[in-house]
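User: Can you predict the 3D structure of Nuclease-related domain-containing protein? Sequence below.
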Amino acid sequence: MKRRKLTRDYGWAGEQVVASELGQLPSEYSVLNRRIVQAPNGSRQEFDHIVVGPSGIFHIETKNWAGEMIFEKEAVQREEGRADVEDPFAQLYRQGYVLKDRLRELGVDAPVYGVLCMTHPKAVWKGKTAFPTMRTEGVVSYILKKQSKQPLRSAEIKKIVRAIREYSQSSK
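Assistant: Sure. Here are the predicted C-alpha cells for Nuclease-related domain-containing protein:
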C-alpha cells in the first residue's frame, strides 16, 4: 500500500512538470490536465493531459520513470525485477479510442494524436513505438510543429474543449 502511494506521488510529480511545460503553449491552445473522460458506451479512461488547438487534439501520457526501458512491439520492458501496473502504449491506444469515439458522437472530425512524455532525467529508452516518445522539453515544440490538413478553428476548439469538460471529471 505504501509503495503504491509513493508510485502515485512520483507519477503526479512528473505530471506537474509536463503541465507546467504545456502552460507555455500559445493562447489558442487549451490544456486539460488530469481528466477522466467517459466514452459514449460508458467506458472511462484517465488522461494525464489533453491539449486542443489548431494542430489537433493531443493526449499525453506522462511517465516519471528512471532507468532503461526497451520498447517492443506493444509493450515496454523495464529493468529486471521492476513490474509496473500499466503498459503506457496500451493506455495511449485506449485513450485515443475514447476521445475519437466521443468526438465521433458529437460529429467532430479532428486529428487525435497520442504522445508518451518521459519526465525523469535518468530515463533511457530503446526501440520503436507506435506513438511519439519524448522528454518533457520536446512536447511543446512537437505540438506546435504538427501540421494538420485542416487546422481547427477557434470555434471548433471551444466546442471540443466544452465537450471534453462536459463528459469528464477531474481525476485529482
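The beta strands are 30-38, 44-53, 56-63, 67-72, 75-78, 112-118, 123-126, 133-135, 168-170. The radius of gyration is 16 Å.
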